[in-house]
Specification:
By secondary structure, the protein is mainly α. The protein is about 55% helix and about 0% strand. The chain contains eight helices and two strands. It starts with about 25 loop residues before the first helix and ends in a 35-residue tail after the last helix.
Length: about 250
Amino acid sequence: MPPRKAKASAPSDEQEPSPGRRRRSEAQVQKNEETRMRLLNAAARVIGKYGYAGCSIARVAARAKVAHGTFYLHFKSQQDLFDQLLPALGAEMLEVIGKAVRDSKSLIELEHRGLVANFDYLVQHPYLHRVTSEAELYAPVAYRQYFEELAKPYKKSLRRSMAAQSQPAFSEDQLDAVISMLLGARYHLLTRFCVEGNSLKPLTPELTQTYLRFVAEGLGVKLDMPAEAPAAPAAEVVPLAPRRKRKVAGQGDD
């Protein structure tokens, strides 16, 4: 019998593209990312109005002003869209909060700036509340990832602030539980006092001071913030922005 021919191995990402196939230009990669973010931005607003149950691919494509088939160039399915949505929204909000808390002089100043920036952002992006609250049912993996990503910079900031205390109230191992309690307090303040239908109103100064007193006494620090502390910069009402990927030396465009 003649020897069998060896099967050709599947081309790897490291191999050169076939002669008839061109690598996408940087402009094309950027354009594709802008379309993907436009779809995510449209989905957020559709969910804000109709909920996840009413967030059909047709509605998202129409809101993003793209052809129905374009959706599948960026997402495998409706569930894939749901799984990517909340982490993308959270990244935008974290960027705003991070700028607001930068150079805070004390733990309470850090907490105050973060609280104000957090609520300002949510008031100006009210659809995020419904995207978050319903995600536990419709996108549980994204829901867990969202809160894990919120906790990471929060823990880093609290750790740095508490290190300056002569006798920190909590150990490193206890910080995760403390952060969960603080995030839970913020979430319930939002739902209890700020939600009005599909819109959100700001947290009142009285509630802000009550929250800060609760945090100060719980963390064992002095509440030395002025009554009228400067508010964090207001978040701009802008669609989700595409992020440029850093180039790795030796690699071409995808």
